[in-house]
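Task: encode each sequence below as structure tokens.

Item 1
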Amino acid sequence: LPDSPLARPQNMLGGHLLSATVGLVVQLLPLPMELKLALGVGLSIALMQGLGLIHPPAGANPLLILLTTQSWPFLWQTVLPGALLLIMVSHCARRLQTSRLTPT
């Protein structure tokens, strides 16, 4: 749904960075893994909702981070470039789509 408000660039970037950060912080807590997984996803969704940065696919970031025991460089080496790449591809696809619809 490229026209969805949930797919806006600020939602994509903010949602992914926020939820990944939550996953990295929750990972530091001395809790059972099951509780960390639930807390990471729940807290990410609540914060995205509260900050107006809802991007549903970003809710999986805490799961990925906790299940693969990522560290802080994952945030700027993987999540940030990945989100920026998604935004660039979306922008290019939108331009390509509008150029095809516009008669020359």
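Item 2
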Amino acid sequence: MAFAIFDQELTCPVCLEVFTDPVSLGCGHHFCAMCISQVWERVSGDVSCLQCRQVFAQRNTTPAHILSNIAEQVRQLRVGAVEQKEEFVCREHDEKLKLFCQEEQEMICVVCGLPAQHKMHNVIPIKEAAQTNKEKLEESLKLLQEQMNQSVRSNQEGETAIRQLKDQVDGRSCETRAVFEKMHQFLRERQQQMEAELQREADKILTQLENNLKKAIDEISSLEAVIQGVKVRLEIDDPHGLLKDIQALLKRCELPVSSPGVVSVDLPEDVAEGRLRSLKVWKEMRAVVSPVPERLTLDLDTAHNELVPSQDLMIVQYLTTKQNHQDHPRRFVEDFCVLSSQSFTSVRHYWEVCVGNKYSWVVGVRTESLNRNGDISNTLEQGQWVIGVSSNAVKIPNVISHLEIKLQKLGVYLDYERGQVSFYNADNLCHIHTYTDSFTEKLYLILNPCNNKSGKNSEPLTLRTT
């Protein structure tokens, strides 16, 4: 039979019949929807493909519409073939159908093929037409199968993308929870510590106040006894009785009166001032949260001869006058650049650079081995990941000019393991741009304050840690 070549592709492995409502599994194999459903109903837990045995945690299937259309056409062909096998005779002329009209795409008899009936038509023998159309169907099946495979691949890629997105969201959520739990734990501990410290200072003052109060009560009791004795003696009219033991009574009247002293109820300044204490806690918490703005210094040996780093090596400025920098193989020759003294080969790091009102500058990250003798600001070659504003840096991404808020302070974030260098507006941490690459060697922060443009771009670039 002409369509027997389709049997392997269009037969359900369960019922061994042409597919009815075929569905695709995640592995790419196909089954009748009813067949695979009935098989899986007898299975508890995970299910698997009956052909490749791939296991699926979820019982998901995808309708195979194209395959369903092909199966239906083959089914109709089989029915038609049975009918045609019984009768391949022209109903009009009662002759066998031996010819095929290509224009009308129908089988005809010899009489139908006479010029009067099919004048100017291309009429060929039926075996030749069958072979031609068989080849067409085979080619169509091949194309349809390719489309089917592509659809299955697209479906698998979509499912993979969904899983990757879910995994990414779950991972970021775990990171977020861990960061905030660390901050919450730190704040709870510092709160308990500060409250305990406050209570200790209050207890000290309270103890002093209570001691003074006890002394005052004892003083009052003693004075009350003396006053009562004097009053009793004054009520005696007899001179002898008044003067009896008068010396002792007078001496009691000279009872020294001791003042308990004034106790300040003001707490110590470092305990009482809540605002400064909260500032102290905020600074301490920076050690808990990672990453935080790290302190960097500039490597004087890499600075271009027209750059002037500050004494603390945290500020760099361009001057037209060449400096007396010693020759060094690590020094930049053409570009007005300087590297950080510190290098980085792992984990995550964050730095902040104040660009102020400069209208020309370049900041970023670069590898140790990258060439330092050429004009690197005009290139974005592999090994350097920078952004900036410079008329010469034509290949640097134009991302600064699109910002709605003027950039004053730039945040640079390096995630070495993930291969990312990201840039942010450090004032509000709005994302500006991200490079994605793979890092295999030491990385450095690179600063380029650019030419001062006759004083119009004379502001320095400043490393910030707060």
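Check on item 2: The chain has a mean pLDDT of 83. The chain has nine helices and 19 strands.
End of task.
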